[in-house]
Amino acid sequence: MALTLAGLAADRPLGLRVLTGDSALDRPIGWVHPTELTDPQAFLEGGELLLTTGLALDEETSPAYVRRLVEAGVAGLGFGVGLSHDFVPRSLVSTAADVGLPVLEVPRETPFIAITRAVSRAVAADEYATTVRIGKAQQELTRTAVGKGGPAGVLRKLAKLVDGWVLLFDRTTVTEATPASARTYGASLREELERLRTGTRVVSLDGQEVVLQTLDTGARRVLAVGASLDSAGRHIVNTAVSVLSLALEQDRAQASARQALRSGLLELLAGGQDELALRVLTTTGAEPPEAPWSVLVFAGAAASRRKLLEALEGEPVFAARWEALVVAFGPGTVVDVVAGAALRIGGLHGGVAGPVTPADFAAGLGQAELAARAAEAEDKLLLSAAEHTGRGLLSLIDPVVAQAFAHGVLAPLREHDETGRGDLETSLRCWLEHHGHWDVAAARLGVHRHTLRNRIKRAEELLGRDLDSPGVRAELWVALQT
């Protein structure tokens, strides 16, 4: 930390006495400059402690001299007594007090060189501490970037090092925030982000300085740092920008390689080479999903498909690109995971088939793709292959017989619904359409999943049938299509 006037005055061997400016003694001293010029402005940069014996000063010239020093931005004035003056001119002290300029009385026994040395030692120590801080921060950020922390770890480390908050933007969307509450600043920075093309921009947000810095990555990413940054802090942010850019590009390259590998494995499975595909998957250190598998295929816009793949990273499901589709498979429980992610993203239509063994994967994939195309045509989130195939049975049934069958099967539900006590028929249809997935069906109906569970339970009671039975579900689906 830079030496302040208060710190210098507290150095007892120097014997300095504060005459004015008690409230401004926290000013840091940039350097010391001895001079007897009455107008030294041309030789000052601001922030100096000016030392003088007042050789050319008197009671009349002192006020103007003080004002010139204030205009030059000096930190304070050290006035040596016992040579030209026995005491500091009263007009100098009075004027300095009026304008808020700190004045330190330097006794005859204290040479100016002693003050210069004291400040020089402090400046050197401050610069060394800054260098050490920057070096340590660079090491910590680099270790975090190449370790398990990754980009998110770099952001957490940076926020701690600068004692502030950090946001990472993909264009104008916040992708990471440290702490999480800092996300609220994202909307306020959107306009500035749209203006920033490359480089750095410093803006003010709620009275706080915020640094926006573009990253050197393939995608347009921006780092935002909200903190009071000193010189070391700015160096630390620059280091974070470099290591973060590298970490993000490495992540992108690794993700691209993983996606290419998964797509290749998917082609092997689709081509009937399931043993080879599973062997390659095991060799790469991945754990193959436990069979039998449910197979899901989703169609939609490229951006939505990309978001679905990103959302499934880290989930217990194998997901990959396949032509203009996303294919995911795994144990039966993955259906809820994948369908839930697709529902949150929106703009996706999927089909599900299975359970299938690895040897039957190709057939399940074909069935799921046909169901996905049907779901896309009907603007549905998810359609099972069994439901899609089952619709063809209606063409084999006499319409009169089918209607009579439907009336007999669904009469209890329709009679119940006519009383206005619940929309059981529509709820059952939606639930079957979505393969019995509570969260997805409830979202489509606009009700809570517990409400839907109660409706299906009531429907089961009225129908006197076990809705967990595949045969019962098939019969009901046929009846609902009539």
Q: Can you describe this structure?
A:
The structure is a single chain. The chain has 17 helices and 15 strands. With 482 residues, the protein is an alpha/beta fold. β9 (208-214) and β10 (221-226) form a beta hairpin. The strands form 3 sheets. A 5-stranded mixed β-sheet has the order 1-5-4-3-2. A 5-stranded antiparallel β-sheet has the order 7-6-10-9-8, with helices on both faces. Strands 12-13-11-14-15 form a 5-stranded mixed β-sheet. It is 51% helix and 17% strand. α7 packs antiparallel against α8 and α13 crosses α17 (470-481). The protein has helices spanning 5-9, 62-72, 90-99, 112-146, 150-162, 186-195, 231-270, 274-283, 302-311, 334-345, 361-377, 385-390, 399-418, 424-433, 438-445, 449-463, 470-481; strands at 17-20, 31-34, 48-52, 76-80, 103-106, 165-170, 173-178, 200-205, 208-214, 221-226, 293-300, 318-322, 325-330, 348-356, 382-384.
Comma- or semicolon-separated keywords:
single chain; 482 residues; alpha/beta; 5-stranded mixed β-sheet; 5-stranded antiparallel β-sheet; 51% helix; 17% strand; elongated
Overall mean pLDDT stands at: 86
Using the alpha-carbon principal axes, give the shape.
elongated
Residue stretches low in confidence (pLDDT < 50, at least 5 long) are none
Count of runs of 4 or more consecutive helical residues: 17
Percent of residues in β-strands: 15-25%
Helix-strand makeup class: alpha/beta
